[in-house]
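Input record, target 12 of the design panel.
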């Protein structure tokens, strides 16, 4: 019964015996599925290790290894089915080669299904692999979401600083606001054409229609509050495009959408929104409000010589309404890194 919640003898009966039994069986099945998954991932690692050890005995390792896998596949598929195809045996071999230290397998990999492990083990950087192992387990990403995040360089797009976990390694470090902000954001799910053929209202509508995907792209800890959030003074009403709350940072996050290049007026407007929100809406237990200017393009002069350069509460990030190529996303990441380094030396 280990792993299944056992109620205290003092727990009052619900009066619904059938419902209670169904709940017990449902929990047991979930636990059993997790145990089976963990055992199979461990078994695949052991199979991969055994194959590698056998291959190392061959005179011509490359030729012998492929013959070995083909022969094993034919025999194992006859006994155990399609799970032991030639391609999957190659995956098991790669799985062991990726994680020769069994400690990683038995502490991190077994927390995820085999389908997730097959994707993550293809990530080259070991620190980034470890981050994806932990983050996928913690946030329960689907295979589709994990694949999308790897392809869009989710990890690398997180803004970072010299002491930020995103810049150095995937090890856990003190929480930094910049770990919760990316540049650029990839919004291919909104289904809008490339620049400059859309306006702010259609973009906002598309984000709301795909709110779950947008929140996954934002990152961890975000909960949606309201669109076109009104804040009022004695003389005026102002409307913020999107307002979220991050329960990890314990603060509100304001997002202003700009489908054109960022201007000094946009920066000044967001600065005003942050100050007003802190004064009117921020609770006594909340941390300072964060503002993100999500724009089609950025004017580097504006970024460098405005309050954006020194603000710890306001960020400007570019968004892409399509899935960029690997070369394009790397170029965007490099430009963002150069801006950060340049700003840190000012």
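The sequence produced for target 12 reads:
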């Amino acid at each position: 019964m280990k792993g299944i919640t056992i109620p205290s003898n003092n727990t009052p009966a619900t009066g619904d015996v059938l419902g209670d039994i169904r709940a017990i069986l449902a929990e047991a099945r979930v636990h059993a599925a997790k145990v089976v998954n963990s055992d199979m991932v461990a078994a695949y690692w052991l199979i991969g290790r055994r194959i590698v050890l056998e291959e190392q005995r061959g005179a011509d390792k490359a030729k012998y290894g492929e013959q070995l896998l083909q022969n094993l596949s034919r025999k194992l598929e006859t006994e155990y089915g399609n799970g032991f195809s030639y391609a999957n045996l190659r995956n098991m071999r790669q799985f062991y080669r990726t994680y020769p230290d069994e400690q990683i397998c038995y502490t991190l990999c077994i927390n995820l299904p085999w389908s997730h492990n097959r994707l993550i083990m293809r990530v080259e950087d070991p620190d980034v692999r470890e981050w994806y192992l932990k983050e996928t387990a913690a946030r329960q990403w689907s295979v589709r979401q994990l694949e999308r995040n790897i392809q869009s360089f989710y990890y690398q797009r997180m803004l970072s600083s010299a002491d930020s976990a995103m810049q150095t390694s995937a090890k856990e470090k003190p929480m930094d606001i910049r770990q919760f902000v990316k540049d650029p954001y990839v919004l291919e799910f909104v289904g809008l054409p490339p620049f400059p053929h859309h306006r702010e209202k259609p973009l906002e509508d598309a984000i709301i229609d795909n709110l779950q995907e947008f929140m996954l792209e934002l990152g961890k800890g975000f909960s949606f509050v309201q669109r076109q959030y009104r804040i009022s003074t004695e003389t005026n009403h102002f409307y913020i495009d999107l307002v979220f709350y991050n329960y990890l940072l314990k603060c509100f996050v304001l997002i202003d959408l700009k489908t054109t290049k960022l201007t000094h007026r946009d920066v000044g407007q967001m600065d005003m929104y942050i100050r007003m929100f802190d004064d009117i809406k921020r609770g006594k237990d909340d941390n300072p409000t964060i503002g993100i200017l999500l724009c089609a393009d950025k004017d580097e002069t504006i970024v460098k010589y405005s309050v954006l350069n020194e603000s710890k509460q306001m960020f400007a990030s570019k968004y892409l309404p399509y899935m960029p190529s690997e070369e394009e996303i790397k170029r965007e990441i490099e430009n963002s890194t150069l801006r950060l380094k340049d700003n840190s030396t000012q």
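The first strand starts at residue 185 and ends at 186.
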